[in-house]
Amino acid sequence: MPPPTDSAASTAATAAPAVRTEPRTPDSRPGPAVSAGKPPAPRKSTVRTLLRLWPYVRPVRTRLFTAAGVAVIASCLGLLIPLVLKWMVDGPVAARDPGGVWLGGGLLLLLGITEAGLFGLRRWLVARPLAGVEAAMRANLYGRLQRLPVAFHDRWPSGQLLSRATTDLQLLRMFLAFPLTFLLVNSVTILVGCAILLSQEWTLGLVLLGPVLPLVVLCSLFEARYSLAARTARDQVGDLTTVVEEGVLGIRVVKGFGRHRSQARAFRELSHKLRGTELYKARLLAGLLAVIMTLPELALGTALVLGTLQVSEGTLSAGTLVAFLSTALALRWPVESIGFLLAMSQDSATATERHFEVVDTPLPRDTPLPRDAAATDGATGAAGRAGPAPASGSLPGPVPDENRPPGETTPGRSRGGAPSPSLSGAPEGGLRFEGVEFRYPDAPAGTPATLRGIDLHIRPGETMALVGATGSGKTTLTALVPRLYEVTGGRITLDGTDITRLPRTRLRELIAVAFEDPTLFSATVGENVLMGADGAGEGELNRALEVAQAEFAHALPHGVRTQVGEQGLSLSGGQRQRLALARAVVGEPRFLVLDDPLSALDVHTEALVEAALRRILSGTTALVVAHRPSTVLLADRVALLSGGRITAVGTHQELLRSDPEYRTLMSGDPQNPVSGEGTPAGGPPGTASPTRRSPAGADGGTSR
Ligand SMILES: Nc1ncnc2c1ncn2[C@@H]1O[C@H](COP(=O)(O)OP(=O)(O)OP(=O)(O)O)[C@@H](O)[C@H]1O
């Protein structure tokens, strides 16, 4: 996969002094391939790259080919005009026959009108289907982006993806509408024109064909250089889009820290780089055009002199010379346009390449079934091994009925509060981490894995608080449960079923998550909340809002139908967090994963949310990341995450008594740890002794 930014730029730099002398972008973050340590893949030929568009073009091929045929006819009709002229000069004009001249004039007018009409028809034929092609490509790209793992999005700057979904696709639509057709039309016109020239006077025809060879060599040199510059320019547009997007989304920070000047400078520098690349492209194209225009003009001048001599010697008729020169002039535009068309084709090949870099990125393959499970659970396994998605975007089917809890009609939902029966009927239900290890894909080599040897069992209906210092890996651990990232060792089970054997759709029906950063979408409050459960209605919405103490939504100008701004920024942080919590609980999920869900709430609201959450949590199996004692007290037990391992499991009281690190974390003051006896609100009575785990995470205590 060629990288979007640096490598393309550097490759282009070898060919393009203008690009080489430009400063590096201020945010010259390595592109995906660079960060992956891969060298840029060599570019396929332009034609092979553009041929990849065929699956998108196929459905509209009839109209497109018809349009191309119409354009070829229109263009060839134009070549008849010199022949009519020849007839007029040698015939009616020489014989001073006004009737013949009028007839010839009428014929010329008819040819001109027909040519214009046919070109209009071509435009009409392609406009609608090509808008459809662009829409299909955009939908495919967007679908892929939605299905690609979070790790992919961690690596790719958003502007690179945005520019692929917008400007690149516009460029491709324009290419299909104009350059593609005219490359064909103009090539055919040139061939037919050359045949006419040679048939009229072959010696003069050969003179005109003289520049063909040097022009072919020049075009291939141009293609090699221009394609690199085109790639650099497209990637720089992506970088620029990233800067604009970050500047707009981070406008509060930019203004709050008075960083608008440095932001503007970063933008200017990137714009300057892009301008340099575009100028380099323009210089390349200007050089090509200069030669493309000069050589044929020289040949035409030579042919004109030789033709005039032949007419004066009487070896050539005046009409033939007029027709010859008119044909040669009619070929001027098709020849001269080759430069532009080649440049646009290069730009389009680059856009195609960039499109398929995303679309070709493999989707994560689900872990293959163990042999014994494959024999007994083929249906689930087949669905679970999603692999690369079909283009149609079909999703793996639901888990077979035998895997559904008895009496459950809607897959994955167990509305009603009581702990649900196990997924597979396995005796060891709940959420279990078994020797889980996780390393971020782009973590530097040699660094320890973020999570190591995680063994943790959250029993059915139990709420486990996950406590740990900042950066200890709490968010990472919670992200593994809905498979936002794949474990790199060990496994996670839900009611005894390995989560990699559950189709992702099924998994995400079973688990609801609320993240630390409560992202909302540009939609109504109600739509944002109901996103958490398919088929939920107003009753569920109101109940979820009540649980999350988000009843402020009813007081908004249009109640739950109030549109929230982009990312929900029109709401306060605490309001957004409560809506995100409502979204997590609206479906009464079997498993709930909450990443510090109450951090932005004031003490009073937090107490109200906790009271309501307690009811919800009593009916689910939950993992709740907690920083504050008040949140910890929602849990039945607490797991302490330290240095990427679970180092202790027990009740809040037990850990306060026995674990200095936990005491320190709960006190928030390393000098003044909370004592086990003096908990802020009194924890649930501990029933078992806490388990202090060895660093290797091996214990056999209460957690297992
Ligand atoms: N996408 C990522 N790629 C690489 N490393 C990451 C990524 N996200 C987090 N990390 C690293 O993983 C470690 C654990 O991060 P994580 O966000 O899980 O910590 P946390 O315990 O949730 O912290 P906090 O309490 O501050 O939210 C950190 O060192 C962080 O730098």
Automatic annotation (TrEMBL):
Ranges annotated as biased composition (Low complexity): 1-20, 370-396
Domain ABC transporter: 431-668
Gene3D superfamilies named among the record's database cross-references: ABC transporter type 1, transmembrane domain, P-loop containing nucleotide triphosphate hydrolases
Span list, region Disordered: 1-43, 357-430, 661-704
Family annotation (Pfam families): ABC_membrane, ABC_tran
Location of the protein in the cell: Cell membrane
Superkingdom of origin organism: Bacteria
One GO cellular component term noted in the UniProt record for this chain: plasma membrane
Segments forming domain ABC transmembrane type-1: 65-347
Keyword entries, A-Z: ATP-binding, Cell membrane, Membrane, Nucleotide-binding, Transmembrane, Transmembrane helix, Transport
GO molecular function: ABC-type oligopeptide transporter activity; ATP binding; ATP hydrolysis activity
Membrane-topology annotation of the record: Multi-pass membrane protein
Transmembrane intervals: 64-89, 101-121, 174-198, 204-224, 284-309
Matching PANTHER family: ATP-BINDING CASSETTE SUB-FAMILY B MEMBER 10, MITOCHONDRIAL (PTHR43394:SF1), ATP-DEPENDENT PERMEASE MDL1, MITOCHONDRIAL (PTHR43394)
Protein name: ABC transporter ATP-binding protein
Taxonomic lineage of the native organism: Bacteria, Bacillati, Actinomycetota, Actinomycetes, Kitasatosporales
